[in-house]
């Protein structure tokens, strides 16, 4: 079920479940900003489509218009959601998320 879910939708559900109320409001607003960027950069990417190359293309596209530290923050947020997807069995192998480490 989740494997066919769009990555940005999974990220949105994940951030509202795990981060809303658990982090400061200013930090949560940064997650919202990352979500908006992910929607623009990868609107059709499904969790099942994610591999190292696809993930790196997302990061590269984001980096075109953002500073290195902002890009690293974006990466850390996306990576955290993908690590949870791995733990939950939504992503079956680490090979799907190796570029996230």
TrEMBL record:
Q: Which domain of life is it from?
A: Bacteria
Keywords assigned? DNA-binding
Question: InterPro entries annotated for this entry?
Answer: DNA_brk_join_enz, Integrase_recombinase_N
This one is known as Phage integrase SAM-like domain-containing protein
């Amino acid at each position: 079920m989740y494997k066919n879910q769009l990555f940005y939708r999974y990220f949105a559900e994940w951030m509202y479940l795990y981060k809303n109320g658990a982090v400061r409001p200013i930090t949560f607003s940064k997650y919202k900003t990352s979500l908006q960027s992910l929607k623009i950069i990868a609107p059709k990417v499904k969790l099942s489509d994610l591999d190292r190359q696809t993930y790196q293309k997302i990061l590269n596209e984001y980096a075109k218009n953002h500073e290195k530290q902002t890009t690293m923050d974006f990466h850390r947020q996306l990576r955290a959601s993908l690590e949870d997807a791995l733990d939950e069995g939504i992503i079956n192998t680490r090979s799907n998320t190796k570029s996230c480490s």
